[in-house]
Amino acid sequence: MENEKSFNLFDFGLKKAGKIQIYDENSLDSDGNIIPFETQMAIVSHFLHTQGTNFEDPFKEKGTYFSRFWADWVRGKPKEVYIDEGMLSETSLEMFLFKDVYNAPFQPIKKPKFTFIDLFAGIGGFRMALQNLGGKCVFSSEWDAQAQRTYFANYGEYPFGDITLESTKQYIPDNFDILCAGFPCQAFSLAGKRLGFAETRGTLFFDVAEILRRKQPKALFLENVKGLAIHDKGKTLKTILNTLDEVGYVVPEPQIINAMYFGVPQHRERIYIVGFRKDLGIAPEDFTYPEQKEVTTHWIDVRESEPVPSKYYLSTTYVNTLINHKKRHEAKGHGFGYAIISDDGVANAIVVGGMGRERNIVIDKRQTDMTPTTRIKGEYNRDGWRRMTPREWGALQGYPVYDTGNGKPVFVIPVADASAYKQFGNSVAVPAIQATAEQILKTLKKRK
User: Fold this and answer.
1) Between residues 196 and 215, which one has the greater pLDDT?
2) What is the pLDDT of residues 358-394, one digit of tens each?
3) 129 in helix, strand or coil?
4) Is-contact 34 21, C-beta < 8 A?
5) Is 4 helix (H, G, I), strand (E, B) or coil?
6) Domain 105-294+415-448, CATH homologous superfamily name and number
7) In this structure, how many other beta carbons lie within 10 angstroms of the beta carbon of residue 12?
């Protein structure tokens, strides 16, 4: 390399992973298959963040090996230059291969108060919330490649992939405190027959339940769409609760939590499920969800401080389409159609797809240069109608996406707008998660 200090191995690997594979006979998994470069990245980044702790064991052997092997491959120098008694030098690695691990804005807690794992991690909403409370993430998993990219850019940790695979589950450490999962709402086709552990097989919730059964953390914290409460006339939720009981957890009555009562101006209702390991002696009534009091922020509080580019403004053709579409539904007595959020209002739930943007149109007349920068039909409207930006969606979910000048880290958005909308739309609302997690910790603290 002409300039070794500027070389970034993970960045190089992500760009080239589809074209090259760095491996030898020690780069095989237990089934004899080559461990993909993305999984090698997950192993190494987890190892670097857990080395010297009680949680390094699942990553230590392969993490140490891959680190040595990559260093040799890049520099062409002998391994003994880098490794001393199995421990990696954080300083030298930061300056050489792993700058993006150690320089990510939201680093793991050095002296954590508790530990957790982050399943179906998305872009790390659970992680952001629990790190804010002093927790350390010791394992993360997310299958979407673009979400993995955003997660890595912000936390310096590349999530493992498909959690349904045993080859992924084998890397989950023992003795962590809390399992967190915003698991997808997948249909429970057998729900309502026997209401037991076996019924969850074939669903992604089964993998959560199986990990709970094996690892037995002190507590669990699950999030899902509001509709889970009434899915299949309540049978799906009943199956989930019955399964959690069967694998060893006391579960207080799940609750619908609205994010707009926790400091973000977004009407976002989600079901939260909390549980505690039975041998801790915690009764359902020992836990209370955070109180939902009042709305304290409004749309104007999270709007971008500077005028946004013209590409976020709607074309005249699109505006007319939205108006006519709404008129047709109003004539039929329906409430479907676009919605304009006032400056002192609260946004509707941001969701993936066009409706998530069309139900959250804002009026912003600050931009005066309406020169088209993308292909549109007609011209940009002059009434200030625009969609929210991805960064504004991030703010609606409680991510620190703006530089406030106080030296605190800012959430990185390394992906294109389309992916960013999807990632924030699928995310949990960080402040609501944090308020609930704080209640979990208080309950555990009472039991020491």
Assistant:
1) 215
2) 999 999 999 988 877 777 777 899 999 999 999 999 9
3) helix
4) yes
5) helix
6) Vaccinia Virus protein VP39 (3.40.50.150)
7) 16
| DSSP line for 144-175 | -HHHHHHHHHHHS-PPB--TTSHHHHTTPPSS
The Cα 243–Cα 238 span in angstroms is: 8
User: In terms of pTM, does the model score above 0.85?
Assistant: yes
Residues belonging to the chain:
448
CB distance 116 to 94 below 8 Å: no
Yes or no: say if 438 and 446 are a contact pair by the CB < 8 Å rule: no
Q: Where are the domains of the chain?
A: 1-103, 105-294+415-448, 305-388
Instruction: Indicate the helix (H) or strand (E) that contains 219.
Output: strand 219-225
Cα–Cα distance measured from residue 98 to residue 383, given in angstroms and rounded to the nearest whole number = 48
Catalytic-role residue among 22, 185, 339, 351: 185
180 is catalytic: no
Report the run of H or E that residue 114 belongs to, with start and end. Answer: strand 114-119
Structure token digits, residue 288: 């209370």
Residue 87 DSSP symbol: B
Phi, psi (deg, nearest 5) at residue 169: -60, -30
**Nearest to 246, CA basis, from 282, 208, 281, 272:** 208
Task: Give the separation between CA 167 and CA 160, rounded to whole angstroms.
Answer: 10
